[in-house]
TrEMBL record:
Keywords: ATP-binding, Membrane, Nucleotide-binding, Transmembrane, Transmembrane helix. PANTHER family: EAMA DOMAIN-CONTAINING PROTEIN, INNER MEMBRANE TRANSPORTER. This is Peptide ABC transporter ATP-binding protein. One of its GO terms (molecular function) is ATP binding. The chain crosses the membrane at residues 12-34, 46-65, 77-101, 107-128, 137-155, 161-184, 196-217, 229-251, 263-279, 285-302. The keyword NAD does not apply. Gene3D superfamilies: 1.10.3730.20. It is a multi-pass membrane protein. Signal peptide: none annotated. Residues 25-151, 170-302 form the EamA domain. One of its GO terms (cellular component) is membrane. It is found in: Membrane.
Length: 307
């Protein structure tokens, strides 16, 4: 009897752990924006990201070998994975980090790039031949209204173009949004057979090369190796670039990838809550209402696409 009871307890614990995994993944993913806020006072964006990708590859490559994960066998697939990496990691992270570096609040940056499902759905028609439903069009409209309210509320807070940041920050984060959206579509079309872990390593190689060139051309490459910067860099490498990817692999293996996709719309409010707690970043009431409306639009698009 006791053995049966113990087996049931272990089964319940495993089920509870599996149910919590998507939420844990989203919570970890949202800390990437917070990590940028912590680390950027000590290194410029391209330099920061280049160091992150180099350290990630130094740890990830032996892990791929230990786990006996295969690499893509086709040179063409290598090329497509590299291109997707330039968009998904290079343009996306480079744009987000530069936007935060130039003063954009981490919560607002998370909300803007969190509109990626909206832009992806809008581009899927002309690029992939997919048609939008009325519900998805309504979601796109809600997303635009919501983000207009958020940006409008920031406009009212200061005498400059936006409170605490300028047009350069907005352009950078919008470039990140375009990069992650196009990268998602490109990966969906050309990289469906990509092994997740070794494919991520190839993407990191491509993005690291691009950002390294950017650091050489546009930055001083000086780093202040403070305790805060080292801990932040370690968190982004170990938790975001490796642990989160391994967690995603486990979720896909368990058939939970769709739950992760549906929970991604929680990243902006979770990031905003963390930024409020850690950095006292605030949105006025109109901005909070706009965030809710924008997230509702993303939910409608994602839910409609999954049906």
């Amino acid at each position: 009897m006791s053995s049966i009871f113990n087996a049931l307890k272990e089964k319940d614990a495993a089920s509870l752990g599996l149910a919590a995994m998507p939420g844990i993944f989203v919570l970890l993913w949202s800390t990437g924006f917070i990590g940028a806020k912590f680390g950027l006072p000590y290194a410029e964006p391209f330099t920061f990201l280049f160091l992150r990708f180099v350290l990630t590859l130094l740890l990830l490559t032996p892990l791929i070998w230990i786990m006996r994960i295969s690499w893509p066998s086709s040179p063409t697939l290598w090329k497509h994975i590299a291109v997707s990496g330039l968009l998904v990691h290079g343009t996306y992270l480079g744009g987000v980090f530069y936007g935060i570096y130039w003063g954009m609040p981490a919560g607002l940056a998370a909300l803007l790039v969190g509109l990626q499902p909206l832009l992806t759905a809008a581009c899927a028609g002309p690029l992939l031949g997919e048609r939008l439903t009325r519900r998805q069009w309504l979601g796109l409209l809600l997303g635009l209204v919501g983000i207009s309210l958020v940006l409008g509320s920031k406009l009212e807070l200061g005498s400059t173009l936006f409170s605490g940041f300028g047009m350069g920050a907005l352009v950078s984060v919008m470039a990140a949004l375009v990069g992650i959206s196009l990268g998602t579509l490109y990966q969906k079309r050309y990289c469906t057979s990509m092994p997740l872990l070794s494919g991520a390593a190839i993407q990191y190689m491509a993005a690291g090369g691009l950002l390294g060139i950017g650091a050489l051309l546009f930055e001083s490459r000086e780093v202040e190796w403070s305790t805060t910067f080292i801990l932040t860099l370690g968190w982004l490498v170990l938790v975001l670039s490796i642990a989160a990817i391994l967690l995603l692999m486990a979720l896909i293996k368990k058939g939970e990838a769709s739950r992760v996709a549906s929970l991604f719309y929680l990243v902006p409010p979770v990031t905003a809550l963390q930024a409020w707690w850690l950095f006292d970043e605030r949105l006025p009431l109109m901005g909070l209402i706009g965030m809710v409306i924008a997230i509702a639009g993303v939910v409608m698009v994602v839910k409609s696409a999954s049906k």
